[in-house]
Amino acid sequence: MRVVVGLAGAVVLAVPIALPLYFWEYAATDGQSVIWAPISLFMVFMLGLPSWLRGVHHCRYPWRVLGFSQRDRWWLSWAIAFLGGVVGIGLLYGLQWLLGWSTWQPPGPAVGRLLLEGLLVGVGVGLAEELLFRGWLLYELEQDFSPAAALWLNALIFAIAHFLRPLSAILATWPQFLGLLMLGVALVWARRIPVAGRWQQRRTTVLGPAAGLHGGLVFAYYQVDVNDLMVATAQVPEWVTGIGGNPLAGLLGLGFLSVICAITYRISHDRRLIN
């Protein structure tokens, strides 16, 4: 209930800004693009978070609670995880290429622009979604549930939030829900990776690994998808490589996510870091 109240409060506060922006952008782009309304909603939510955490949970350092501390280690962990996400997507599509399930298409003349766009999208989506799901929401769930229950509830809400679509589309792409659930679990474990520092700070965790991993995956997949770098050869059924070209909805992608889950679980439970 506390989570619902928090989100509803953000929506009410953002309506005077978000609603006019929505109608303006919808009319200006003939309905092709509506991004400023959700951005304004998120900005109101983000600006209200410190007051919420101070007022509801009596947190003296709200941004620390949300995973923003240890600046140098935050960025280092973010960069390593971002690179890990890019390499992971590269290995996934590289394996498809080696098996003859996809062919490589050289990038077009707009590759520079798409690289920049993909970087902005990856960094932005990684930071925004991780602040919401593994920053605030995970903290709220951990106040009322065990760490294991909070992990699965967080991953379930993350998957549902990304799978809201008509029933026919849900039935056609249902493996994607499992992929989103596994991604959510991996990102919670990434959020719980301890950041080694001075001996008294060794249990500290930050949002950097989760935001970096999420951002790297989005950036790399953006290049493959928008740049049309890889094209399926149809040598195997679509459910192997990904229904609709989405690796989250394919057997190979689910196997790839299993590896990411295993890695993040292993690092987040490394006793050399948490003892």
UniProtKB/TrEMBL annotation:
PANTHER family xrefs: CAAX AMINO TERMINAL PROTEASE, SLL0360 PROTEIN
GO molecular function annotations of the record: endopeptidase activity; metallopeptidase activity
Entry annotated with the keyword Hydrolase: yes
Keywords: Hydrolase, Membrane, Metalloprotease, Protease, Transmembrane, Transmembrane helix
Transmembrane portions of the chain: 34-53, 74-94, 114-133, 145-164, 170-190, 206-224, 244-265
Protein name (record): CPBP family intramembrane metalloprotease
Domain annotation CAAX prenyl protease 2/Lysostaphin resistance protein A-like: ranges: 114-192
BP terms from Gene Ontology: CAAX-box protein maturation; proteolysis
Keyword Transmembrane: yes
Matching InterPro entries: Rce1/LyrA-like_dom
Domain of life: Bacteria
Signal sequence, start to end: none
